[in-house]
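Lab notebook, page 48
Experiment: co-folding of the full assembly
Goal: obtain a model of how the components sit together before planning crosslinking
Operator: M.T.
Materials (sequences as entered):
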Amino acid sequence: MFSNGDEIFKISRLTIVWLAGIFTIVWMVCWALGIALPMLLTQQLGDKAALTNEILRAATPVIAILVFIPINAMFMVLIERRALALWTVRKGPNRVGPDGNFQTAADAVKLLLKEDITPTGADAVMHTFAPILFFAPSVFGAVPLLAAVTNNHPLFRVLNLPTGIFFVLAAGALPVVALVMAGWASNNKYSLVGGLRSAAQAISYEIPLVLSLITVCLMAGTLDLVKITEQQAGGILNWNLLGGGALTGLNNALAGGGAKALATSYFMGPISYVCAGLLVISLIISFWLYLTGACAEINRIPFDLPEAESELVSGYNTEYSGMKFAIFFLAEFTNLFIVSSITTVMFLGGGDNPIPPYILNNIPGIPQMVAAIRDSYFCSTLHIINPETFFATLWVIAKVYGLVIFAVLIRGTLPRFRIDQLMAFGWKRLIPLSLIVFIIVVFAREFVICHG
Amino acid sequence: MANLISRAFGGLNEVRRGLATVFKHTFREPITKNYPDEMPDLAPHFRGRLALTVNPETGDHLCISCKQCERVCPDKCIEITSHKSPETNKLELIDFKIDHGLCMFCGLCTEVCPTLCIINTNDFEMADYSRESLIYDLKKLTLSQDESAFYFDRKEMPLPKPKPAKPAPAAAGAAPAAVAAKPAAVPSVAAPGADAKPETEAPEAKAPADSKTVEVKKPEVKAEVKEESKPEAKPEAKAETKTDEPKADEPKADEPKA
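Observation: model returned without errors.
Model output:
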């Protein structure tokens, strides 16, 4: 079909097999700890098992995250290298294992076995704490996201916070401290410059990032991640990316409400239509602002100034090796994953199917299939698959990894910013733009009935 | 303001074009070659390792010790030792040394060579562990009959006239038959004869042959030479497989001569 069909086939097979593997493993761990073991204990011990069950339920999500992060980072590094190779017209890793698919596993083993060096004159305590402080927020920052990305699965429901997105943003702002710490403690001028650059960059880009998310929260009327996802259910027209509910009236009209639904949603006539259009444009700009800010926040190309290899010899992690470097590496990719998850939840409707239900339910076979899965032994007795959350989670996985691949595509395309361009772009372009978008949304949402 | 907006859209459009271009690369064949697994397809006149050819038909060494290559070499990396034979009054080659660590592969020596003896082969895998082992002597430089035939064919060089043909008119004039036999015999015993033997047997056979010669001069280097001779032998084997020269033919061609 294509001249490069072989490589494309390899990379898609790798993605599907690895993702299926990762999520099966993680889900089996969750299921064993959170569902199967409590069920067994209740059968055997009766009421005495209540306390143990509570502890198990609380521990399950954390263990799930801890199992998930390393495997996922390994997969993401591999897929990034392969995709970059595909887009720069070369071959990716092809030495270790079949088609080089064990490359990252070998890298991980190498990194773990490597000598851990603390340079002379470095502050040993800070040098050790920096990677931990860098990694920790990506673990506990991911926790409130779990309920949202699994469509409020009962196992993860306890973790949901009423101020979810606020918590996630707070956690996401912490790694900057770790980077400055790492740079300062390394006793290396390159590292120090890298750390300071990262501080400057993170402070500048935090503002448009947060403002773009505030715009979404304003449309949604809540900070609760689960509520934000639930509002967006019902097809692509309901997503926050497309107006944050400004098109809900259109969606309802298409679903069968007719002109009446249009009239209730857009009660001001032409003004409402104009405002709905403005909202759609604002939210799309908001989406791009968020992607840009997030790229800068997690130090990815084109904003990888803190670790610019050609300028700063890898910046803040110049002096790190072995386990500590592995943790930095792990956290970087986990951050990318978390940022993609936030984008999915806030803008892309979380686990929502882009095809609206009034089309989907009319396709022959699909409702029957869902019903068959619901009645199967796995669902009704063993609770391995929860049909309410299963398809939602699949959609989340597809969207999140789609965004990850998009980040890789951006990495393959755009060159790095210069530091003054970076600052000018952040302060003189993105922040005013996000403020303008915010103000437009504040006024325009009064003339349209939307989520909030 | 309008300028700013148009610039913003222009910039976004550039980014979109860039992303589209990069994405289109998905459907392109990678340009990477699997080099150690697959040999690159080199041009016939690729300037690789220097080597001395023999007459592909008779096996006579083609060097006439004219020292033109030594004179033209900008790096002075060629060193020829020869003496005037008292019987024939002609120059006889004793040793031919090229320091490949100095050579810059300009190919001037191959251009001046009147007998097409010194050539650039297509072999470029010459990495070694010491500078001394980059100095190739006559035995290391001289190609076997088959290799010479291959390079004469590949570089489309005119085949040299057989050497006995030259003394033949001379013999018809005045010189006795012994003179005619001498030039043919001396090089074949001195260089290609010694070289052909290890070529007939696999690289293992070459190791003892090398070490024997070195043993006389400095026995302490013996073990080192043994090790070195193997990687040196490998590229040749590789070069042969890559160039589709049937390796099985080599012993057959050399056996009747030996």
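Interpretation: The two ends of chain B are 90 Å apart (CA to CA).
Next step: discuss with group before ordering constructs.
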